[in-house]
Amino acid sequence: MSRKKAVFLYESKRMRWFALAGIIAGVLFTILMMHEFKGAFEDGSFYLGGGINFGFCKMLGSASILIVGCIAVMSIFQFSDWHKKSTQEYLLSLPFTQKERFLAKALCGYGTILLSGITVLLGMIYVRNCYITEFWKNLSGIAYSDIIMGNNTMWQLIQLGLQLILMMLALYSVFLLAHILVSRGIVAALIGTGMSFAPIYLWSVGYVLLYDGWFFREMQLDIPKYREWGQYLGLCVGSGFRSTDMCSQMESSSYYIIVNYSNFWLMLFAAFATIFIIGGLAYWISGRVDMARTGIVVQKKSARSFISAGMGVCFGTAFGLLGAYFVGYRVSGGDCLLVFIMLSIVVGTLVYLFMKKMLSISFQ
Length: 364
Fold this sequence. Notes:
Shape: flat
Number of helices: 14
Helix content: over 70%
């Protein structure tokens, strides 16, 4: 048996229970979808809410936080031997390189997630087939039925399933990078979670600054298509599933919501770019990890600076917004922007210095 095959079999054996758990989770999600859809058909809300695909879209968006947590836990287990010194010493004595070990881990992790995602997609197809005939039959007398019918095709359902799979694969790539940079499993998972949410959080901060007229009083800015950026920046945490359009219908005070698929190919490109760039970066770094310094939380100075700076920006802007709103609420005509800038700089700098010190601690 070749050494590459041996290390792959070793990693796949460790991941077999997670693969089974992923399949079971997909089946349970299918059962949940059947239960939710049955209730929606009984009370008629499907015909006022946008149909079957929008129901899937809402459920996938709601499940995104749970998905982040599950992949974080899986990554902790998968890299437990990578972060454990005694196991590292044994594995280093075997005839395969760190890059080969990392590649085997990554492929097994991607495969496990892909299996779970395919199970969910098959479940979505099954649920659709159970209800689609009744849905078409009862839709004919409803206003905008042609729009809703055109928004509930099988291809569009597959798009949602592909978006889910690529979201999970992109999220896992972020955790791969975190575990390569950080030598403590739980800390790596926490930092990976923060890295996943940071882009959409900072986008939200920008949205408040640019579009909240109260915040800036007389100065309200605008950037073309800024609202759409959040769908791509929050790709790893399910923001793409919240892209909807309102189809207004004032008759009987009702309205219709349809899923916006116009950005599907851009979402696909963003997901693949995230997977290949971040996954490739993690693979490149994996061969440059000094196993003699695994006791240091984050070995590389550049990585410590990057992580610390990211946390400084996130925590600094959070305190800046809170302080600015407090001043704006308490003081008539208070300069919210000045308070935001000052608090963001002060708190961000303190967090940066503190985290840079903490990430350089050695547990050897």
